[in-house]
Structures are given as C-alpha cells and as structure tokens.
Design goal:
Layout (H helix, E strand, L loop, with lengths): L4 H16 L7 H8 L3 H13 L3 E4 L4 E4 L8 H8 L18 H26 L3 H13 L3
Antiparallel strand pairs: 1-2
Length: 145
C-alpha cells in the first residue's frame, strides 16, 4: 500500500472537474493543463475513476461529471480507485538472514505493528472527503492565492 502520485492527481482531477465543470467542458486535455502532466496519464486515471463509479465520462460535448455528492467521496474511495499497490504499506526487505536472531525475528516484531499502521492510515483516509478539498480550494482562490 504505497501511495503514488496517482492518488493526488486523481483528487486534482475530481476537484478541478467540480470547480470548472459549471463553466467549461472538462476534458483530459483541460485537466492535464491544470495538473501539469500528460493527458494520457489523466485519461488512464479517469478510466479508473469511472470504473469505480466516481465519475461519468461523456464523449463529445459532455465531458466529465462527478457521480455523487462531494462529501460522499472519501479519500479512501479515491485511493481504492487508483492505487494498484495497496496490499502492504511497507515493503519488507526480502531476505533477512535466518541465521541472525534479528533477521529471523524481524517479521514477528514488526508485522502486527505495520498492519495496525496500515489500518489507521485507511481509517484516516475515510475521515476526509472531496467536499473538504473543494471548499478549501474555493477559499484559497477567493483570497487570491
């Protein structure tokens, strides 16, 4: 469960879609300009967000639409949609020496702790939602930041 830039880009996609969607046709090219990345990356993430039911993508004049209220889209929902390496937050070194007392027992000493940390991380992601992000963005934009 390592968090890549896909997670933050996906949140950017959703926030920009909400912010600009009333006035502009939001497309992958439009979003790529806001994010500062290649439109192919945006399209791949949009497919994952669509497959997760978070957005609807309409070809032609339709653009992108968010499918449910922002306060009902948690960070965990986005994380689940776009991150592919979710199994373990911490990648363990592969070959601790079984002849060494530390190497032989390091998993026993750490595995439960790492599982607890991962669970807490996932619970924390569930506590934040896209509505908070868009609200904070709108405040910052109004301040002229």
């Amino acid at each position: 469960m390592q968090v890549s830039t896909k997670f933050t880009i996906a949140i950017h996609i959703l926030a920009a879609t909400e912010y600009f969607g009333k006035d502009y046709k939001v497309t992958s090219d439009f979003l790529a300009g806001s994010i500062g990345c290649n439109p192919v990356i945006v399209r791949n993430l949009m497919k994952q967000l669509r497959d997760a039911g978070l957005i609807a993508v309409r070809r032609g004049p339709g653009g992108i639409q968010i499918t449910r209220p922002l306060d009902q889209i948690t960070f965990y929902d986005v994380y689940e949609a776009v991150e592919t390496s979710k199994d373990e937050m911490f990648r363990f070194h592969e070959n601790p020496n079984p002849q060494c007392p530390v190497g032989r027992n390091i998993h026993a000493a750490l595995d439960d702790k790492f599982r607890d940390i991962q669970k807490q991380f996932e619970d924390d992601l569930r506590q934040h939602n896209l509505g908070e992000v868009v609200g904070d963005l709108e405040k910052a934009i109004q301040k002229g930041a």
